[in-house]
Design goal:
about 425 residues; nine-stranded mixed β-sheet; globular; alpha+beta
C-alpha cells in the first residue's frame, strides 16, 4: 500500500469536566418516592419508538422567573421559520437515511447536510433509478444530492470495531468515524504509529484511515434545578467540587432524577444557589472503556423541584434526539453548562460521529471547541428545534470533556449521546415542556 500523503501530528490532552448521571435504582433514604406516577401526569406522555425501544417524553409546565431569566442570544436571534425549515429537512434526511440503511445498506455510505441545507447521501455505486426514487421520496428534491465513495457505512463501522478491539495492544488513544470523509479516524502516539502502523494496516485498508498522531492523556475537571445549572459535590463551595446538570428525568421506578456525567462520581449532591440542604445522592455512576456513556443520575429528595427550563435562559427542553438524526458530521449543536451563565455556547459543528476512547467511553460525538471549564461536565448539549410557534432545545447528549491538540492549539469537545444515556441508565422518561 502507498504511504499516506497526509498525517496530522499533534499531542492530545483529554479533559473531562465533572458532572453527574443517574441510575434506575432509587435510594430508600431521602429519595422522592412520594412523587406521583408519571403515567398519571396531567399531559399526555409522548412515546417515541426506535430500534424496538420506547423513549418517553413526560410533559410539564415551564416555570421561569422573569426576575432571574436572561434572554439568551440564541433565542432572540434564531428565526423560528428558518429553524422550522431546518427541522423539516433533518426529518426528511432521517427518513431517507433509514430507507437507504434498510434497502441499500451494503452500498449506503452515510449522510450529511451542507450549509445551504442540501442533504447529501453517500453511495458506493450507482443503482438504476435510485437517485430518481430518492428524489421522489424526498420533500426537498431540489435540496437532495448524491456523492459516490469507496466504502459503505457498514464497512466503516466494521473496520472501526476491528481496530478498536485491538486498541490497547496497538497503543491507540482513540478510534472514530467520519462518514462525510469516508474515513476511520485513528488516534495514536508517534511511538505507536512507528511501532504498529504496519500491524494496523493488516486490519484496515490504508485509504480508509485518517491518522491523528499524538499523545492523549485524560484530565478530569470536574431546590429548583435547571438543565445547565451548577451542582455541588459537597455542602461547601470548594473550587472544582462541582459539575453541571444535563437534564431532568424519571428513573424506571417513576421518581425524579437529575442526569449528569458519571465521572463526577457517586456522592451526595447540593444546589448551593438555593440552600445548604442536599438535593439527593448518585449511586449509579457509569464511566468505563466498555460503556457508551459517561453518565449517572441523582435520586432527588422530595424538596427538589425539577424544571424543563434551561438555567437562566428563555429556552425550554421540548424534545430529545432519540434516533441520532440531528448530530451527523456537519450538524450544529450547543452546550449549556454552569460556566456560561444563561447564554450557552455558539453553534458547534459535529466533527466525528462515533468516537471511541480506549481509556474513556464508546460511541461519543466530537465537536468543535468552546470555552468550557472545570465544572461544566455533565452539561446539556442540544440543538434548536421549533414547533412553528416557538424555539425549543432538543437534547443531544451530555458533556464528557475536551480533547486538546497541544501542537496546534486546536481543541475539541466530546459528549455522550442522548440515546446511549437513556438506554444505559434505564430511564423511565424525560421532562419536556408541555407547550412543545
Amino acid at each position: 500500500m502507498s504511504t499516506l500523503r497526509r498525517i496530522i501530528y499533534f499531542t492530545l490532552v483529554f479533559s473531562m469536566f465533572f458532572s453527574f448521571t443517574l441510575d434506575s435504582n432509587v435510594e430508600a433514604n431521602g429519595s422522592n418516592t412520594d412523587y406521583q406516577d408519571p403515567m398519571a401526569a396531567a399531559y399526555k406522555i409522548r412515546n417515541y419508538e426506535y430500534e424496538g425501544k420506547i423513549y418517553k417524553a413526560i410533559p410539564m409546565d415551564s416555570k421561569q422567573s422573569v426576575e432571574t431569566v436572561q434572554q439568551s442570544i440564541e433565542s432572540t436571534v434564531k428565526d423560528i421559520e428558518s429553524i422550522k425549515l431546518n427541522d423539516a429537512r433533518l426529518e426528511d434526511r432521517q427518513a431517507i437515511k433509514e430507507y437507504l440503511e434498510s434497502e441499500y445498506g451494503d452500498i449506503f455510505g452515510g449522510t450529511y447536510s451542507e450549509k445551504d441545507g442540501t442533504n447529501v447521501y453517500l453511495l458506493t455505486k450507482k443503482v438504476d433509478n435510485l437517485e430518481k426514487r430518492i428524489k421522489e421520496k424526498s420533500k426537498y428534491p431540489d435540496k437532495t444530492k448524491f456523492k459516490y465513495v469507496k466504502y459503505s457505512k457498514k464497512e466503516l463501522k466494521n473496520s472501526k470495531k476491528v481496530i478498536y478491539d485491538s486498541a490497547n495492544a496497538l497503543g491507540l488513544s482513540g478510534v472514530g468515524m467520519n462518514s462525510k470523509t469516508n474515513k476511520v479516524n485513528i488516534y495514536l502516539s508517534e511511538e505507536s504509529f512507528s511501532l504498529h502502523k504496519d500491524d494496523i494496516l493488516k486490519k484496515i485498508n490504508e485509504d480508509m484511515v485518517n491518522w491523528i498522531v499524538g499523545d492523549m492523556s485524560t484530565e478530569e475537571l470536574a431546590y429548583d434545578l435547571y438543565p445547565g445549572e451548577r451542582i455541588n459535590m459537597g455542602p461547601n463551595e470548594i473550587l472544582f467540587s462541582w459539575c453541571s446538570l444535563g437534564f431532568n428525568a424519571f428513573n424506571s421506578s417513576g421518581a425524579y432524577v437529575g442526569v449528569t456525567a458519571g465521572h463526577c462520581g457517586n456522592s451526595v449532591y447540593f444546589d448551593l444557589s438555593d440552600g445548604s440542604s442536599s438535593i439527593g445522592s448518585m449511586n449509579n455512576a457509569v464511566n468505563s472503556p466498555t460503556s457508551r456513556i459517561d453518565a449517572g443520575y441523582i435520586n432527588y429528595v422530595s424538596s427538589v423541584d425539577p424544571s424543563v427550563n434551561l438555567n437562566l435562559n428563555s429556552l425550554t427542553i421540548g424534545t430529545f434526539d432519540y434516533n441520532g438524526s440531528r448530530h451527523e458530521v456537519g450538524d450544529a449543536v450547543t452546550l449549556h453548562a454552569q460556566s456560561f451563565g444563561g447564554n450557552g455556547t455558539h453553534a458547534l459543528t459535529v466533527l466525528d460521529e462515533s468516537f471511541d476512547d480506549p481509556n474513556g467511553n464508546l460511541d461519543m460525538v466530537l465537536t468543535e471547541n468552546a470555552a468550557a471549564v472545570a465544572g461544566d461536565s455533565g452539561g446539556l448539549f442540544y440543538s434548536h428545534i421549533s414547533n412553528g410557534k416557538k424555539t425549543y432545545a432538543c437534547i443531544e447528549g451530555i458533556l464528557k470533556g475536551r480533547v486538546n491538540n497541544n501542537s496546534t492549539g486546536t481543541k475539541y469537545l466530546v459528549f455522550s449521546k442522548f440515546k446511549n444515556v437513556y438506554d444505559g441508565l434505564k430511564l423511565g422518561g424525560v421532562l419536556v415542556d408541555s407547550s412543545y
